[in-house]
Amino acid sequence: MKYRVMIGLEMHCEISETKTKAFSSAKNDYSEYPNASIRPVDMAFPGTLPTVNKEAVRMGLMMSMILGCTQPEYLYFERKNYYYPDLPKGFQITQETKPAPIGSFGEFTYELNGEKKKIRINNLHLEEDAASSDHYPSGTRINYNRAGVPLLELVTEPDFRSADEAVAFLEAIRSIYQYTGISEADSKKGQVRCDVNVSLMDASLDDSDPKNWGTKVEMKNVNSFGGVRDAINYEIKRQTELLDAGKGDEIVQETRRWDEESSSTISMREKVDAIDYKYFVEPNIPKFKISKEWLLEIKKSIPTLPYERKEKYINEYGITDYDATIIIKDKKVSDFYDECINLHADPKLASNWVTTNLLGNLNKLELEFDEITLTPKMLKDLIDLVNSKEISSKQAKEVFAEILTSGKTPQEVVKEKGMKQMSDEGEIVKIANEVLDENPDVILKYKNGRNNVIDWLTGQIMKKTRGQANPTIARDTMIKEIEKR
Ligand code: ADP
Ligand code: MG
């Protein structure tokens, strides 16, 4: 039987760019010393009350607009009641059931291998993160710095058909978080976590009717996009094999864990009945109206998004779709490239340098973008040195490798290495004639039609100048001078 794969994602992204937490004035920075960024309200001390962080709401509304969602007229929060040591209040403030969360029913277009794909967004909601458990040999300690960090959870409809689609979508959303300045969205810092839902259905049936959908399996807290890809592919294989063997009833609605080490999913718990979280509207946060004026203001303040930059690169700068896609993938790289263009670097040359040399070297040397000392100005100067023929493009690559992390400017490296190309034609004419004077027999060969001796003669110029003559100028000069003989 042929199966249709259905994948739905729940993507949690911490808002890292507010100064304070979602409902308290504690610093939104849990990289600090453990339990340094906390306030009594995060610890649920009696008599404390939450205060909504307007900036977090603003960012949530902006994301809601970008995802094509509807924004609510009134904002409510709800309590999701459960106890865990990382949740001292005994409830999480979230937006889960009714009334409307910060975003509902959107649609978003992303690209996979140059093809545009649409995905329906079920909702986007604003909530608070839980504390984190730090494991030590002596035992586990709870660090409450993360408790109350604002979190946006995006829930898609099960519209993805492959792991590649799901990952392309996640990458697009991550870059939007970065471009809008809402979050660093760094999975290495645990800022992005995904729940991945996978099911298989009979491909001959109508997929618009949920009755025909297969039983879904949920993988919770997958914390890298590579993990998402592997977990989906593993589940597709596992479920296909069960269905093919007529063991479809062994696919049960359950939560599985993606285990990085064994590259497989492991059952955690069966979802017999949903846990009853006894949701109710958070009584300590009055509902408040979101004004049309504020929404308009937020809409106007949406910065240029990655796909808009891409269009500009292709249409205005004439660089390829492929290169533009690579550059916009990381905001820092795109900002670097934009700065080069602002300094009037040639857009195509700059794009070549960024995509091949810069990113190539970062990959090869396993460096992060923040670790380099190369500035847009240095790259622009390097391009100019090649354009003015002061150094060859081969030498430029050598200079590039030096200026990437050494803090030196290209001019300094060129000087240190004595690399300057000799482009002074008068000087080269002089040397060409020296070479010809020393080799009358070669001139004779040339006159007898052996044109290829030019290469050897040019080589002699290069030798005399210890490789510093510009090879093109040297060759042209040699032809001109030998013709005069
Ligand atoms: P639950 O009540 O189990 O949390 P939801 O309806 O809230 O389920 O959906 C959670 C996620 O699971 C959403 O991303 C949704 O798209 C996805 N999902 C729902 N049904 C399926 C299915 N049959 N196959 C794959 N994903 C699904
Ligand atoms: Mg759900």
Structural account:
It is elongated and about 100 Å long. It has 485 residues and is α+β, with helices and mostly antiparallel strands. The protein is 38% helix and 20% strand. The strands form four sheets. It has an eight-stranded mixed sheet with strand order 5-6-9-1-10-11-12-13. A three-stranded antiparallel sheet has the order 4-3-14, with no helix packed on it. It has a two-stranded antiparallel sheet with strand order 2-15. The chain folds into three domains: 3-294, no CATH class; 304-416, no CATH class; 425-483, Arc Repressor Mutant, subunit A. The N and C termini lie far apart (82 Å). The chain has helices at residues 54-66, 163-179, 225-244, 292-300, 306-315, 321-328, 331-342, 347-365, 376-387, 393-403, 410-416, 425-438, 440-447, 453-464, 471-483; strands spanning 3-14, 74-75, 78-81, 91-94, 103-112, 115-128, 132-136, 139-143, 150-156, 192-202, 217-222, 254-259, 264-270, 280-281, 288-289. It is built from 15 helices and 15 strands. The structure holds adenosine-5'-diphosphate and magnesium ion. Adenosine-5'-diphosphate binds at residues 6-10, 155-158, 197-199, 213-214, 216. Adenosine-5'-diphosphate (ADP) binds at residues 6-10, 155-158, 197-199, 213-214, 216.
List the helices and strands and how they pair.
Layout lengths: L2 E12 L39 H13 L7 E2 L2 E4 L9 E4 L8 E10 L2 E14 L3 E5 L2 E5 L6 E7 L6 H17 L12 E11 L14 E6 L2 H20 L9 E6 L4 E7 L9 E2 L6 E2 L2 H9 L5 H10 L5 H8 L2 H12 L4 H19 L10 H12 L5 H11 L6 H7 L8 H14 L1 H8 L5 H12 L6 H13 L2
Parallel strand pairs: 11-12
Antiparallel strand pairs: 1-9, 1-10, 2-15, 3-4, 3-14, 5-6, 6-9, 7-8, 10-11, 12-13
Bound molecules: adenosine-5'-diphosphate (ADP) and magnesium ion (MG).
The site of adenosine-5'-diphosphate (ADP) has 15 residues, from strand 1, strand 9 and strand 10.
